[in-house]
Task: inverse folding
């Protein structure tokens, strides 16, 4: 199969779109990890909750946009409740305890969703006004919905950048990521800050889930399918850094998508086609982990570690 | 110390409960997946077992019955542990169920090795149809290769060429493609293997559009199928390149994708619209009791209980008469939801395969409907390797 310029462009957009989705998940996870020193495996559950709530609200209101808009504060609320009830007691515990507890939360949320909505995937679809294609260039059609996802992701990234670098809350978040003890010693209500950050992360995961609903299968356990890639993103980007999450997400999205699309034909020019058939898919599925290993080899803290972290 | 005493007491009680139950109760261990994303399949299977018991008046072969359900979590090691527990603790007479081929390969030898019947109701790995066949192993489903073979034959007959084939990169994915190629001899433009459990197929769909094949053949079970179908339709390829598949659209995934599956071609040995008395009763009563259309996983599980019932009836409730029950099962003397069928030497069914299409019914629902018969009395490709003779 020939590798043509329009195809490369289309696949680059696909990679960007996947990266944006990963970024929305990674932003919350990296902040929670970086500021609260909490390994939250249940981040994928909030993504799932967002997808289900958006589907339910969209069905109830008849409008996809309204459904997503309602799912955001609802997921934020779920996140705050989870933080207050379950996670507060875990900040002082070591990471293994946190992993156990948040894994328990995964099981809890998956069963809860199965009890409420059933175990089978629920029906979701793209709203009609987003279901067509736009022409990026002559001969390069791109699904409108996915272009919309890229747009939303970029807007959120800019908004987060403004929040983190230009506001007082952002200053506290950055300070919290660098030195928690000092921040609380300066009289900041660190508990409230934790709850806010966790809620913000939950809302972002919910947004990712709500946007994923129409293209993926909305079913119990959907969050775990994306969680591993998100962890790869924050390890590459550097824990606690929004900028790192952005760069890491786009890098992972690009590497994964372009690897799946072009690794096999490129290998076939170097080694024999049957060997490329075998090695291509295997190598493509390893690519993001190889990328992570390479980044860790050269920069063990990730690309953009939060400053002053010890 | 107190907790240890308590534990010992609990153990003692458990041993008492597990002691050989009063005779004339048949115990069936049913292993399926009841949790996680694949739990929807297990739910259908369990419901179908319960419906079969209802239809039999809560007796199997005229005996009181106890079914012990086990959740394998899609893990072979867990499946084997469940089988051991059912054999040693519950002392079951039959183990049944099992969705996944890798789980089946761990469970079946454990059960038959202990001298107990294994009645598979889904997975049909080729090993068990060939060299590893066993007189205590029966299945009410099919051998894995048969369904894609039917699709390969149909597409060959239609002189379809330039086919783009896709499947997840694991054992069953490769089996499906090789089964397909056993009967499809025209040109395959690309054979693409994706990650197992992959969510996003946009990159692969862009490649399909660029390759512009005449048809696409896929095997994407469960959530992968839902995702692939949605994204294929969203990319606008639904109307452009016809999609043929196996185990991708079923009665579980159809309600989640609806119009995104319209026009999809599948092959299968069974369908809710198959016209025979047993099937119509099964489908109607399942809908009445559970409010859903049943799926083939359920039909096979319903058949499994009916097969066990027929065997116990034939030996007049004498559960120690294993040769008698083997002989009875080989006759497949019960009203199967697929209609009458025979067993091959390897205890896999010799059965029909049909071409199905996803259509919209007049009342607005979406359903798979039989279009034509592709294979009549189709045998699997491995029975000659099975040393069993009867």
Result:
């Amino acid at each position: 199969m020939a590798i043509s310029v329009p195809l490369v462009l289309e696949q680059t957009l696909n990679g960007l779109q996947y990266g944006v989705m990963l970024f929305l998940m990674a932003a919350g996870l990296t902040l929670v990890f970086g500021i609260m020193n909490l390994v939250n495996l249940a981040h994928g559950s909030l993504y799932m909750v967002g997808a289900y709530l958006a589907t339910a609200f969209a069905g109830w209101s008849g409008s996809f946009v309204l459904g997503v808009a309602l799912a955001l504060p609802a997921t934020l609320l779920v996140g705050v409740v989870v933080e207050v009830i379950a996670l507060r007691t875990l900040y002082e515990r070591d990471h293994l305890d946190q992993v156990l507890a948040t894994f328990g939360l995964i099981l809890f949320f998956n069963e809860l969703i199965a009890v409420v909505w059933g175990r089978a995937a629920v029906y979701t679809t793209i709203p009609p006004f987003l279901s067509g294609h736009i022409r990026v260039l002559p001969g390069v059609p791109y699904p409108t919905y996915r272009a919309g996802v890229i747009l939303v992701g970029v807007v959120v990234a800019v908004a987060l950048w403004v929040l983190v670098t230009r506001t007082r809350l952002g200053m506290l978040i950055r300070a919290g990521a660098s030195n928690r003890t000092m921040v609380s010693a300066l009289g900041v209500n660190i508990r409230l800050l934790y709850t806010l950050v966790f809620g913000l992360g939950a809302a972002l995961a919910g947004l990712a889930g709500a946007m994923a609903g129409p293209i993926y299968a909305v079913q119990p356990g959907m969050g775990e399918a994306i969680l591993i890639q998100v962890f790869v993103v924050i390890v590459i980007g550097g824990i606690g850094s929004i900028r790192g999450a952005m760069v890491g997400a786009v890098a992972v999205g690009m590497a994964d998508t372009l690897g799946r699309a072009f690794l096999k034909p490129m290998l076939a020019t170097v080694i024999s086609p049957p060997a490329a058939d075998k090695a291509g898919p295997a190598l493509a599925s390893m690519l993001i982990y190889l990328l992570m290993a390479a980044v860790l080899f050269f920069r063990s803290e990730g690309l953009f570690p939060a400053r002053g972290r010890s | 110390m107190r907790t240890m005493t308590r534990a010992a007491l609990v153990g003692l009680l458990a041993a008492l409960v597990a002691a050989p139950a009063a005779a004339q109760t048949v115990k069936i261990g049913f292993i399926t997946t009841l949790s996680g994303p694949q739990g929807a399949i297990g739910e259908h299977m369990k419901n179908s077992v319960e419906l079969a018991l209802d239809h039999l008046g809560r007796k199997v072969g005229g005996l009181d019955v106890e079914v012990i359900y086990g959740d394998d979590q899609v893990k072979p090691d867990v499946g084997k542990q469940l089988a051991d527990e059912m054999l040693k603790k519950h002392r079951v007479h039959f183990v049944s169920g099992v969705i996944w081929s890798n789980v089946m390969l761990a469970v079946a030898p454990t059960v038959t090795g202990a001298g107990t019947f294994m009645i598979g109701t889904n997975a049909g790995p080729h090993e068990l149809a060939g060299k590893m066949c066993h007189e205590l192993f029966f299945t009410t489903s099919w051998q894995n290769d048969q369904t894609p073979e039917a699709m390969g034959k149909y597409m060959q007959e239609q002189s379809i060429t330039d086919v783009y084939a896709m499947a997840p990169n694991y054992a069953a994915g490769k089996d499906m493609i090789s089964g397909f190629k056993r009967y499809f001899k025209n040109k395959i433009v690309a054979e693409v293997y994706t990650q197992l459990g992959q969510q996003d197929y946009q990159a692969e769909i862009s490649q399909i559009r660029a390759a512009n094949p005449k048809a696409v053949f896929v095997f994407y079970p469960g959530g992968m199928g839902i995702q692939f179908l949605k994204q294929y339709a969203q990319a606008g390829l639904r109307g452009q390149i016809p999609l043929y598949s196996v185990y991708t659209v079923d009665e579980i995934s159809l309600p989640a994708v609806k119009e995104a599956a319209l026009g999809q071609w599948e092959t299968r040995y069974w369908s809710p619209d198959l016209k025979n008395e047993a099937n119509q009763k099964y489908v109607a009563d399942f809908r009445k009791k559970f409010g859903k259309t049943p799926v083939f996983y359920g039909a096979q599980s319903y058949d499994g209980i009916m097969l066990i019932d027929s065997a116990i009836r034939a030996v007049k409730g004498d559960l120690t008469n294993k040769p008698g029950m083997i002989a009875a099962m080989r006759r497949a003397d019960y009203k199967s939801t697929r209609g009458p069928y025979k067993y091959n030497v390897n205890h896999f069914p010799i059965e029909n395969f049909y071409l199905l299409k996803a259509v919209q019914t007049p009342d607005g629902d979406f359903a798979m409907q039989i279009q034509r018969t592709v294979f009549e009395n189709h045998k699997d490709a491995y029975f000659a390797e099975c040393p069993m003779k009867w």
Remarks:
- Residues 5-220 of chain A form one domain.
- The mean pLDDT of chain A is 89.
